[in-house]
Amino acid sequence: AEPSVEVMHFWTSGGEAAALSAVKDRVVAEGVTWKDSPVAGGGGDAAKTALQARIASGNPPTAMLMLGQNIIDWANQGLLGNVDALAAADGWDAQLPKAVQDFTKIGGHYVSVPTNVHRTDMLWVSKAAFDKIGAAYPKTWEELNALAPKFKEAGITPLAHGGQAWQEAYMFEAVAAGVGGAEFYRKALVELDDATLRGAQMVAVFDQLAQLRGMIDENASGRDWNLASAMVINGEAAIQIMGDWAKGEFTNAKKVADTDFACIPVPKAKGDAFVYLVNSLSLFAQSNPESAKGQEVLAKAIMDPQ
């Protein structure tokens, strides 16, 4: 018998696969067998469905890539194991800020291991596209909106977008924070305050969202996020609103920051509010000691600063 891990995930784009392989290589080097279980789909919806089927059959993976609230839900159902001893020995409490611990340490137990803290509301821009129309990168929504007809005249799609539910949600969140600011975002989308949800500020958010809808091409429906990134990488589109994981696609395509592309915040009407998410590999309870040992090696590899 030897330690092993089965890692279920949805990191299937080129940049994501390259990132995951860095973790895999470290785990395998420690003598642990790695079983890769990818489920394609950028937002993880297909992976969540596959996970539910695995759990229903009594066969959960060793670890599963999850976001935020999903981790809390599975932990509250008592299905996750923990690496508390490792976390205590390696001082995770001191290393992880509370905003990350909120989705990592549930009920006092380290049930997941954070791989990334992502900022989700970024503009990825093609330098060649902006050079072609002789424009500066937008600092306000008004400036961004005014660029759209100029890009269209130059035969460039103003906004690369994938019409999938999670991408629509991320774009909406980016606009909500950018137009309304942090206090508005929290009252509307966290506290679900009815007056805020029905107020003039929310109307302004949807007005800006409508502007963005007019900037995308007719083939956007169902497009994967990394294919939208490729449109910016190739200069076919000027801008993509996407989380900072998109940089992996640009890096994987051998593009150079500030030479070929730029990454800037979405316009901010009020302050510098930003939206973030925590990616984690959550650890399902294991009856096999070799799998439990594999979990520890996996967790240690992810938390290694190197």
Give a written overview of the molecule.
It is a single chain. It contains 14 helices and 11 strands. The chain has helices at 14-29, 45-56, 69-76, 84-90, 92-95, 98-101, 127-133, 141-153, 165-190, 194-197, 200-213, 225-233, 247-252, 289-303; strands at 4-9, 33-38, 63-67, 105-106, 109-110, 112-119, 122-126, 157-160, 237-242, 261-265, 276-283. The strands form 3 sheets. A 5-stranded mixed β-sheet has the order 2-1-3-11-6, sandwiched between helices. The chain has a 4-stranded mixed β-sheet with strand order 8-9-7-10. The radius of gyration is 21 Å and the shape is globular. The two termini are 29 Å apart. The model has no long low-confidence stretch (mean pLDDT 93).
Characteristic terms for this protein:
306 residues, alpha/beta, four-stranded mixed β-sheet, 19% strand, globular
Helix content: 40-55%
State the low-pLDDT regions, or none.
none
The number of helices is 14
> Residue-averaged pLDDT, rounded?
93
* Element string (H = helix, E = strand): EHEHEHHHHEEEEHHEHHHHEHEEH
What is the gist of this entry?
The protein is α/β, with parallel strands linked by helices and 306 residues long.
Topology:
Blueprint: E1 4-9, H1 14-29, E2 33-38, H2 45-56, E3 63-67, H3 69-76, H4 84-90, H5 92-95, H6 98-101, E4 105-106, E5 109-110, E6 112-119, E7 122-126, H7 127-133, H8 141-153, E8 157-160, H9 165-190, H10 194-197, H11 200-213, H12 225-233, E9 237-242, H13 247-252, E10 261-265, E11 276-283, H14 289-303
Helix pairs in contact: 1-14, 9-11
